[in-house]
Structures are given as structure tokens and as C-alpha cells.
């Protein structure tokens, strides 16, 4: 057991984040998302007892968010009502506001566009989130030189 790392950060999640580089995306998805069939051989990290907002906080405490793109944090849009935000999406935005190292707002993308992006993501983190539309993409940024 490592110190100062939340025990919900599994070795698989820590490894996936440690292997990511600038521009890589990680998909954070709810329990209903067909992660294994959509993402094929891509790593799927299971966090069955963790909500999407809690998983977002765990991830954003460890990874830098990309500041080179306009929308580094994405949410799956509600089908037939793309402007509507579900409560889980508001809660993930709060995690971004609290833990991301830059100010950014979740940007919506259409459901099937989300599936296509998740299929190409570096890794998929499937949470225990049971609320609908608990699906997000985060783009990995860079760490500046120390000093």
C-alpha cells in the first residue's frame, strides 16, 4: 500500500495514468457503458464501487489537463436534448473545478461520437455510476519543468 494515494486508486488505474502522455484521452464511463465491446483490446479499468464524480476527482488529482486544446474535458450529450445537463454531469464539473489544474468547462459531444472517441482512448475507466450519462473524456496535458 502506498502512502498519500487514495485506496480507490487501483494499481491498474495508477498504471494507466502513469503510461499516458500529452494528448492521450482517458474515458470515464458509467456502469452501463459497453466498454469491453466498444473498446476491444484497450485497457478497461474497473472501479465498481466508485461514482463518476468521485472517479473524476481521483483522476484529476493525478493527471494534468491539456491546455493546448479548447475542450479537454468532454461529456456525453443527452440524446435529443444536447443542451441538458444531468446531475451527474454537474457533479463531475464540480470535480473539474476543484481538482483540475486549469479552468475548463465540460463540452458536450453526441453519443455515437463519444463511443468513437472512447474506442480510441488510451484507457477506459468503468465506474459503478448507475445514473444515465455518466460518461466523460479527459485529455492528458503536460507537466511543466520543475523550478
The largest sheet is: 6 strands, mixed
What gross morphology would you assign? globular
Discrete helix count: 5
CATH architectural name: 3-Layer(aba) Sandwich
Output the CATH topology.
RbsD-like fold
What is the H/E string? HEHEHEHEHEE
Radius of gyration: 14 Å
> Based on helices, strands and strand pairing, what is the structural class?
alpha/beta
**End-to-end Cα distance:** 30 Å
Low-pLDDT regions: none
Mean pLDDT: 95
In words, what does this structure look like?
The protein is α/β, with parallel strands linked by helices and 147 residues long. The chain has a single domain, classed as RbsD-like fold. The chain is built from five helices and six strands, in the order H-E-H-E-H-E-H-E-H-E-E. It has helices at 11-19, 35-39, 52-60, 87-99, 111-120, and strands spanning 25-29, 44-47, 73-76, 107-109, 123-127, 136-139. Strands 2-5-1-6-3-4 form a six-stranded mixed β-sheet.
